[in-house]
Amino acid sequence: MQDGGKGEVLRRLKSVEGHVRGVAKMVEGGDATYADVVQQTNAIFSAIRSINTVLLRDFVEERAQKEGASEEMVKDLMKAIDRVVK
Fold it and tell me: Can you give the residue range of the structural domain that contains 56?
């Protein structure tokens, strides 16, 4: 994993970890509605999907560099990734 991608993934994972703790506190407190908890868990899923996107983009860039892929090919792959993950 490239250093830039690694830092980004770790930052996002720590954010998700904090978010999960916050949702756990909501549930423990007993005053959260089902809708509130579902809304927050959906936000967590979205954050994890974003992490997977960062990982996938980093993987493609790393492999493209190793294989000598053209810049145009890398751009096309990144566009395809963006279309799929949205």
Answer: 3-85
